[in-house]
Design brief:
The protein has 755 residues and is an alpha/beta fold. The protein is built from 26 helices and 20 strands. The chain binds glutamine and zinc ion (ZN).
């Protein structure tokens, strides 16, 4: 058998330690950099990544984990499966970016969440006319580059099963997995080419195998890997799973002839003891969490590895998944206090943990003793840090969850809210107005100390005044302040809550060139001061119409942060909920009569296995209700969700029990309203009638058409009129024209209804 390895990672971040790739790609789009210059930035980043890994002691280095935009799109390109509408674009890079982002004439591929992470991949479209063909140039080139540098390179590709399961079938109802027979031979060709080029190992990623799979799917998977293993001249095959347990798939793969299996020991709970076949496999143990930022408990990890060693052919230490999901390094994080910092490990630090564990495992290496001692010392300070336990918060929560009567029944609330005196089909927007460069410049100036806090507040107030005046002019019914003061709907709150800390340079890729900087939740959550009251009451002081208070919900705040790993997520959610609840009570106290608590990430955290879903939905709904049940029945609670395909979460949405729920619908033609009816939903609903993801201005007739459709499913008394989502990414002129049409359409419909 081929030689094995002991320390590796499943993939690396690729945006560049200082977002060099993001900047280069955006500059290429804007015409600043040419393709050659872009390529040279990319090559430098790859080299830095590989050399960093090798020098740290990683003895098998993943390559082809680099991407200009997305690795699923790269796989589609590798398999000749880009959509037909871009096929005519001659230039490779233009074609690739057209598939990713669209251009003047073609729409892009859809984008969706990569499993339960906050990374988004592009969904390949596969139709009966898709003619798969291997295009191995990217992976071969990266392999050659790495080998030329003397890197022990292990090419990584998305596997055939995952590729098909994540793709969207266009123009056919047959399950896409039936196309496996067409693409497995291409993978076979690829393996031969990689062996020729000098690869000893190849990593084939199959994360789709950690979700519920049917017997047929498991059998097809086994067959595909038997075929690939049967090839004579090929690299050793490592099938990589991550984000959960392999379950039933584990014995199937263990009994196949693949050479290695990567198993997620952090998110998964597979038992590797006495699985027939595993005693012949190279098992890559994902024991360093690739998705969160906590330092690994080296003692525990070592013990676990030692226990595994007897059950498998050979063992390597690894991260649980690609390091794509964590920031590059703690190096730049000088604002963190030393204690807190000592609890953390970002990408580079995780690589060192993997190497240290590998050395400890192979034994006889005294040099790692210090690392163990220092990890132990850090863990000890974390266990006893007073910031981790706020007894006041905990006892308040306990008392509340035991005795919270919740809100009154919906009918009673409706009655109490009639004092709002809203017209039929009330019009509103969902929070943000365009984040103009003027707003961003003011924020940057404050950060750099060029303007002071008072100056900043005045500038933001001027923005709020403009937005309120615009809404009055447009004659909207329920106004918002426009959120100019918020850099991000999660970070804004995290920065003001105890228990969270922000990073300086902790960027991770969200999609394409878009990066986010998730805050870190490390301790008990407390709200030292009100967070939004001054802005909202200022807006309310400018108008007699109701202004909505805008808050982010507990589930979304957690979904877009790095969360603590020392207590159940449900407990953290309740603590955040308590802080949001206090804010709603203060808003009410300050005279605000409508409050929106956004939960766009509710569906994103849904566990991959159906057996785990109900428990999640229970606590997620519970946290939302805790956050929103502190106010009187006369205060109207809204929520906003950023999608229209509710599927598994539809009942949960009804259970949120918000007085008004706004959802995305402009593209999906109101079908979702019927789904909501089917679960007995009878509260207010605002299906989006203006698709804010597109620069298009919807006409009055188009909007009345959508409203007519909506009225087929929902009585007028429950229907709200609003866009799909916040307006922050649109331009002021698009927004003004679109909302003008939206208000006019609502008025036309009202007149019709009152006839
Ligand atoms: N209130 C937020 C906004 O309008 C909601 C954004 C979102 O749903 N992602 O920007
Ligand atoms: Zn939204």
């Amino acid at each position: 058998m081929t030689s094995t390895f002991t320390a590796t990672v499943l993939g690396s971040p690729r945006i560049g330690p200082n977002r060099e790739l993001k900047k280069a790609v955006e500059s290429y789009w804007a015409g600043g950099l040419d393709a050659e210059a872009l390529d040279s930035v990319a090559r430098d980043l790859r080299r830095q990544t590989w050399i960093g890994l090798r020098n740290a002691g990683v003895d098998s280095v993943p390559v082809n984990t680099f991407s200009y935009y997305d690795h699923v799109l790269d796989t589609a390109a590798m398999l000749g499966a880009l959509p037909e509408r871009v096929a005519e674009i001659g230039d490779d890079l233009h074609r690739y970016f057209a598939a990713a982002r669209g251009n003047a004439t073609v729409p892009p591929l859809e984008m969706t969440k990569w499993f339960d992470t906050n990374y988004h991949y592009l969904v390949p479209e596969i139709s009966p006319s898709t003619m798969f063909a291997l295009n191995p140039s990217k992976v071969l080139r990266e392999l050659e580059e790495a080998l030329a540098l003397g890197i022990p390179a292990r090419p990584v590709v998305v596997g055939p099963v995952t590729f098909l399961l994540l793709s969207k079938s266009v123009g056919s109802d047959a399950p896409l997995l039936e196309r496996l027979d067409e693409i497995v031979p291409l993978y076979a060709d690829l393996l031969a080419l990689l062996a020729d080029a000098g690869a000893e190992w190849v990593q084939i990623d199959e994360p789709a195998l950690v979700a519920d799979r049917t017997e047929d799917e498991i059998a097809s998977t086994k067959r595909a890997y038997d075929q690939l293993s049967a090839i004579q001249a090929r690299p050793a095959i490592l099938v990589a799973s991550y984000f959960g347990s392999l379950g039933e798939v584990l014995p199937a793969l263990a009994s196949s002839d693949v050479d290695g299996l990567a198993v997620d020991l952090v998110a998964g709970s597979d038992s590797l003891a006495s699985v027939p076949g595993l005693e012949r496999k190279h098992v890559v143990a994902g024991i360093v969490d690739g998705r969160n930022i906590w330092r690994t408990d080296l003692d525990r990890a070592s013990t676990e590895l030692a226990a595994l060693a007897g059950h498998v052919g050979s063992l390597a230490v690894s991260t649980s998944c690609s390091l794509l999901h964590v920031p590059y390094t703690l190096d730049g994080e000088t604002d963190l206090d030393d204690t807190l910092r000592s609890w953390l490990a970002f990408g580079a630090e995780k690589v060192l943990e993997v190497v240290v564990l590998g050395r400890a495992m192979t034994g006889g290496d005294e040099s790692v003793t210090d690392e163990f001692t220092s990890a132990r010392a850090a863990a000890a300070t974390r266990n006893t840090d007073p910031r981790l336990r706020d007894t006041a918060v905990r006892s308040r929560l306990e008392a509340l969850t035991a005795s919270d009567p919740g809100r009154g029944p919906a009918a009673q609330r409706r009655e109490a809210q009639s004092a709002l005196a809203l017209p039929l089909l009330p019009t509103t927007t969902l929070g943000s107005y365009p984040q103009t460069s003027r707003i961003r410049l003011a924020r940057a100036a404050l950060r750099k100390g060029e303007i002071d806090e008072t100056d900043y507040v005045n500038r933001m107030r001027a923005e709020i005044s403009d937005v309120v005046a615009l809404q009055e002019k447009l004659d909207l019914d329920v106004l918002v302040h426009g959120e100019p003061e918020r850099n991000d709907m999660v970070q804004y709150f995290a920065e003001q809550l105890d228990g969270f800390v922000a990073t300086t340079n902790g960027w991770v890729q969200s999609y394409g060139t878009r990066c986010v900087r998730p805050p870190i939740l490390y301790g008990d959550v407390r709200r030292p001061n009100p967070m939004t009251i001054e802005w909202i009451t200022f807006a309310q002081s400018l108008t007699r119409r109701p202004v909505k208070g805008m808050l982010t919900g507990p589930v979304t705040i957690l979904a877009w942060s790095f969360v603590r790993d020392d207590q159940p997520l449900a407990d953290s959610a309740n603590q955040v909920a308590l802080a949001i609840r206090d804010e709603t009570v203060d808003l009410q106290q300050a005279g605000i009569r409508i409050i929106q608590v956004d939960e766009p990430a509710l569906r994103e955290l849904l566990p991959l296995r159906s057996a785990d879903q109900q428990a999640y939905l229970d606590w997620a709904v519970g946290a939302f209700r805790l956050a929103t049940s502190g106010v009187a029945d006369s205060t109207q609670i809204h929520t906003h969700l950023c999608y229209s395909e509710f599927g598994d979460v539809i009942e949960a949405i009804a259970n949120l029990d918000a007085d008004v729920t706004s959802i995305e619908a402009a593209r999906s033609h109101m079908e979702v309203l019927g789904d909501l009816n089917a679960v007995g939903f009878d509260l207010g609903v605002g299906p989006g009638v203006y698709d804010i993801h597109s620069p298009r201005v919807p006409g009055v007739e188009e909007i009345t058409g959508l409203l007519t459709e909506a009225l087929n499913a929902v009585p007028a008394e429950r229907l709200w009129v609003n866009p799909d989502c916040g307006l922050k990414t649109r331009t002021p002129s698009e927004v003004e024209a679109s909302l003008g049409n939206l208000v006019q359409a609502a008025k036309l419909m009202r007149a019709k209804l009152q006839k």
